Amino acid sequence: MDRISIALSVNGKPYQLAVEPRRLLADVLRRDLGFTGVHLGCEHGVCGACTVLLDGEVVRSCLMFAVQADGYEILTVEGLNTSGELHPVQRAFIEEFGFQCGFCTPGMILSAYRLLQEHPNPSEYEIRRALAGNLCRCTGYVDIVRSVQRAAVLLTQREAYRAP
Amino acid sequence: MLPSGRYVGQRVPRWEDRRFVEGRGRYLDDLSLPDQVEVAFARSPYAHARIRRIDLQAARSHPEAIGVYAWEDLRDLLRPYWTMPRGPIRQARVTPLASEKVRWVGEPVAVVVARDRYVAEDLCELVTVEYEPLAPVVDALEAMKPDSPRLYEEWPDNVVSHQTFQAGNPEAELRGCAVVVRKRFRSNRVTAVPLEGRGVLARWDPREETLTVWMGHQDVHLARAVLSEILGLPLSRIRVVSPDVGGAFGIKLPIYPEEMVVCALSRLLGRPVKWVQDRRESLLGDTHAREAVVDVEAGFDAAGKLRAMRIHVISDAGAYAVAGRGPIIEGSMLARELPGPYDLRHYAYTLDVVMTNKAPVAVYRGVAIPVSTFVMERVMDLAADALQMDPAEIRRRNLIRTFPYATVTGHVYDAGQYLEGLEKLLELVDYGRWRAEQARLREQGRYLGVGICCLVDATARGGGFYGRLGLKAATQEGCILRVDPSGGIIAALGTTTQGQGLHTALAQLIADTLGVPLERVTVVMGDTATTPYGGGAWASRGAVAGGAVALLAARRLREKIQHIAAHLLEAAPEDIELAEGRAFVRGTTARSLSLEEIAHTAYFVAVDLPARMEPGLEVMVHWEPEIPATFAYTAQAMVVEVQPETGAVNILKYVVVEDCGPIINPGLVDGQLRGGILQGLGQALYEDLVYDAQGQLLTSTLLDYLLPGFCEAPEVEIHHLSTPSTRTVGGLRGMAESGTAGAPAVLANAVADALKPFGAEVTALPLSPARVAELIRGQKPTKGG
Amino acid sequence: MKPAPFRYVRPQTRMEAMEALARYGEDAKVLAGGQSLVPLMNLRLARPKVLVDINRVAELGTLERRDGVLILGALVRHRQVERDVRVTEACPILSRAAAHIGFPAVRNRGTVGGSLAHADPAAELGCVLLATGAVVVLESTDGRREVPIEDLFVGPYTTCIRPEELLVEVRVPVFGETTRWGFAEFTRHEGGFALALAACVLHLDGQGRVAAARVAVGGAGPVPVRLREAEQVLQGAPLSEERVAEAASFACAVEGYDDVHAPAWYRQRLAGWLVRRVLQQAVGEEM
Q: Coil, strand or helix: which one is A143?
């Protein structure tokens, strides 16, 4: 099978690799590059466990071929915590019991992270709609909604702290 | 009693599970070994067919094929297994890959080994199987007819188990009843759909002749025992490790054909072999659950007291037994536990567990209780209707009030506040106000419904429940607890966790008993090499059985620490207090020793220990509930609005009163309840495994098998009663299933209540919009009602 | 659940894309947003030999308003339709409908052209564009043709687009001062496929009478359909309860289909209910 050379940036680091055209972005991230925080829960675009940010926007990495991501910047959940300190969204998910088995969590956190960039103070309805493409089978969602609300507070506090 | 201290009873966050928010969980598919190969299975496209010929030549001659096998190629490596070792059951022989016949769509027929899953799937397409299609048996009622085709030709019919039970004289009692409810209820077929599917990675070490198996599993000790039998390997040569597990809910309790085959292939090929299930395989072939037809006759006297019941349960078990769990558990529990929290003395049931050409049925969160509660609670409402009595009132008149209570089918409910729970529920939901609101809105053509349900759930089964059926699933639990020489604490338990937060809960119990900071406690589970024998996570036993052994072990260790400290500090053992990782003499802070100092003595200066004391700081405890189960009580109330034009059901309010005894961590308990409730609502509103007349599964993707999402999840108000069990350590009761068990019933009752003006009858699930619309199709609402 | 092998072609221009389609013909499939195609490929229900990835053809991603027409390039993503102020001003019904397509991650990738070419009977855009009277532009190396959206859908998941043709843009008449519209759908859960959906676009005259009406229903049957009888009922008079009810009754007669989610009769009934709702939305307080 012919392979195609592509260049990706993942969590700020450049990668150069040759992939089969049919190889899904999710598999390249997980298997070839070791970003196992990208999870595969359905491989047909329903569950959202494979959510990553592609040039800053949430996408399903099971519905993209890696060749399509050539030249793009990708953020996975591993890229949120670069300083060794948890990102406020990650912190909030622990404080508010926003996960149980943890399998949907990376996708949830990335969707929440993106939502809070756009809407620092979302309503409960906005949270539910923005995250509706991410399925969780453990929590019943209520604690995830609270986690996102908590994250909004933590992020606002962080901004206030940083302001001169 | 639970220990009191800094942690128990507190909403302690799961900081030790920090890896999950960082994307550093290690699930099965995250593990890879050098030289690893992957497999895919060629599966039956027919529900029922004879295999005429399997042609593997094209696949085998493909340059990328590492191996292609059918049953004939593996029969020296794998032994067939039987339906269930003991019990009132017919035996059928099951081979991990189909031989002679296929009996459900998706049954594995051949296996392909390749460098990765992509290539393995390519090669599967080259496997050709010649089938002789047979008439499929899809419906359990049809399957029971004498002229039905048979799945197992050597049987006289398709009934794998027929059981009857009678207590008192229900027939005579029914004759004297003021009201007899006679109805047929149907429950839909659903499955657990953990977000992470199943998978297995097996490594045969030819040098040591040992097999290491990684799989996300709920009971690694059971898995090892089953694999040992199937593979013909001594237990001592198999190690089963469960890494992080992305949800399980019962479907990761059996040992499936794929797992057996992968282990055999690793032995055959001498290299690591991995299989990771995809979602279609999960919907097709994870064990299914809940499909049943229940015919009921229930008699009430004029005062609304339930006098007698006679039921016939027809439980659809699918085509096979899965190893480690039998096909009769669901039907047996459904029949035995149907009376639930209500006083009943005259009861009879007939149970038929029927094989059909559909995926195997086994256990899923709540097992039979979501169905039994649905039936019983609908019966209560129908009787209340007939007697023109309020649904709350009829429950008041039937709930068990004195404890311990011996049930008609032989359980003992140890303690409870069933009536108090109902009254609390009615108060919290503001029952009277909603009834008034309902009447007001009906005048405007809006249809509100108020539903309630009460249930008991048998949790943390003891008494050798499965062992008596010949299954190697333990109801006892084991814990090894050790203070290591650095003063750190390690607890190893035979149970497992798949997201329940059990690490944190157990650490809370141990930390408070030993007076140490939580972060000092490490809990190890899910590895047969490092944990004592135990029973795994099922029947809400994690906190009850795991908590019991953790507590017992910690208490024993605490005593030893106190004795050592007393000896070294020259005080009486009863005057030693443990706190902040130190042992103090009561009333003074001046005389104390750190746990590390005590451990140092115990391990390295044993001569300084009290006379005749064993060196070291380690204990092992095994414990089994003496009674068959511990019972948890739940009462739920729901208010819905039904839109008659579309059949849409909108949940306006949902309140749950639950009693799981004392609570270790409310954050974890509430999370289990909410998650469980949404799975129950999934069954009630969205989820349905639909087969067509040919036995094809029509809902084999998540586009058709609908899981509830963020916008479908209601807020749930939760209230705890906390009645300690008199029969368990610390008074704990299980609670992980009661949410799931009540949700279908409470929703069905609320919808039925809303539709009362239309004269609609709710006797089947799920209540999809189309089904609700069907119920009221052509009906004009009556005023009032 | 992994896709079968294929040859991957990534044209940079429209011409290159059309040449690729001309070369590979029936063996080729266009990859736009991939939100419908890739699931089918992962399930191996679709297995094109050649995949022509048009995502790098910048000229297909343009969005402009010219001469009373809103022109949406094939590669315009649903997210842009949902949010771009040029769309919300020129054809607000499109933005409203786009907000109902799947989930944010799906809208970020899914495209206008992809949705139309996939021809899912329950797709929001097909139904809404039918109500707006849009025209689809198809191009091949042999030339260009404009197809009224009514003629695009020939069956479920089937269009009149020839293998060598590329759907390059959709042209939608811009709404005027007196244009009224409505859009509604019924799904079993948030972001799910509609069991039925409806859209209407009405042009009023100076006296508040309906001068022209287009009413469309999707999801109920094999293709989205215009309700021409309903449109006739509405034309020439102000909207009234009676006319809305009569118009909606035609929706109950559309062809329906059965599946695991709902039987045909239910979808037909739902279509009637939705048509009434969209007509009520269209006139708002005026009725």
A: helix
Does A1 sit within 8 Å of C106, measured CB to CB? Answer: no
CA distance to B1, B478, B494, B506, B553, per residue, from B491 (Å): 20, 10, 10, 9, 9
- pLDDT score of B783: 65
| pLDDT tens column, B70-117 | 999 999 999 999 988 888 899 999 999 999 999 999 999 999 999 999
Q: How many CB atoms lie within 10 A of CB C58?
A: 12
Amino acid sitting at position C260: V
Q: Which of residues 32-51 of C touch A (CB under 8 A)?
A: 34-35, 38-39, 41-43, 51
The answer to whether B556 and B563 have CB atoms below 8 angstroms apart is no
Mean pLDDT of B639-664: 97
Q: Is the pLDDT of residue B627 over 90?
A: no
Is B311 in a helix, a strand, or coil? strand
**In this structure, what DSSP letter does residue C77 have?**
B
C35 vs A45: CB contact, 8 Å cut-off? Answer: yes
pLDDT of residue B784 exceeding 90, the answer is no
Task: Collect all residues of chain A within an 8 Å Cβ-Cβ radius of residue B24.
Answer: 36-37, 78
User: What is the Cα–Cα distance from B187 to B19, expressed in whole angstroms?
Assistant: 39
Measuring CA to CA, how many Å separate B226 from each of A91, B78, B222, B232?
41, 11, 6, 10
Which of A37, A88, A101 has the alpha carbon at shortest distance from B503? Answer: A101
Eight-class DSSP state of A31: I
Please state, in angstroms and rounded to a whole number, the distance separating the CA atoms of residues B511 and B523: 11
Q: Please tell me the distance from the alpha carbon of residue B666 to that of residue B669, in angstroms, as a whole number.
A: 5
Residue C272 and residue C268: Cα distance in Å, rounded? 6
Chain C interface includes A128 (CB < 8 A): yes
Q: How far apart are CA B709 and CA C72, in angstroms?
A: 32
What Å distances lie between residue A162 and A88, A149, A153, A157, CA to CA? 14, 20, 14, 9
pLDDT by residue (tens digit) across A40-78?
999 999 999 999 999 999 999 999 999 999 999 999 999
- Of C2, C190, C273, nearest to B645 by CB-CB distance is C273
Strands B210-214 and B238-241: parallel
List pLDDT tens digits, range C155-203.
Answer: 999 999 999 999 999 999 999 999 999 999 999 999 999 999 999 999 9
Of the candidates B521, B514, B520, B603, the residue with the CA atom closest to the CA atom of residue B561:
B514
Q: Do A39 and B246 touch (CB under 8 A)?
A: yes
Backbone phi and psi for residue C69, each to the nearest 5 degrees, phi listed first: -130, 135
Cα A150 versus chain centre, distance = 18
pLDDT tier for residue A162 given thresholds of 50, 70 and 90: confident
Q: Phi and psi for B238 in degrees, rounded to 5?
A: -120, 135
Q: Tell the residue number behind the tokens 């009943």, with chain if given.
A: B344
Distance from CA of B236 to the nearest CA of C (A): 36
Q: Do B708 and C270 touch (CB under 8 A)?
A: no
Q: Tell me if chain A has a CB within 8 Å of the CB of B115.
A: no
Question: Could you say which of B279, B646, B708 has the minimum Cβ distance to residue C1?
Answer: B279
pLDDT tens across B217-255, in order? 999 999 999 999 999 999 999 999 999 999 999 999 999
- Contact, B447 vs B439, CB < 8 A? no
Pairing of strands B630-643, B447-459: antiparallel
Residues of chain C falling short of pLDDT 70? 285-287
Q: Between chains, do B118 and C2 touch, taking CB under 8 Å as contact?
A: yes
Distance CA B768, CA B647 (A): 7
Distance from C-alpha of B116 to C-alpha of B182, rounded to nearest angstrom: 56
At how many degrees (to 10) do helices B369-387 and B738-754 cross?
A: 30
Helices (H), B128-243: 140-143, 170-175, 220-231
Question: pLDDT by residue (tens digit) across B370-381?
Answer: 999 999 999 999
How many other CB atoms sit within 10 Å of the CB of residue C183?
27
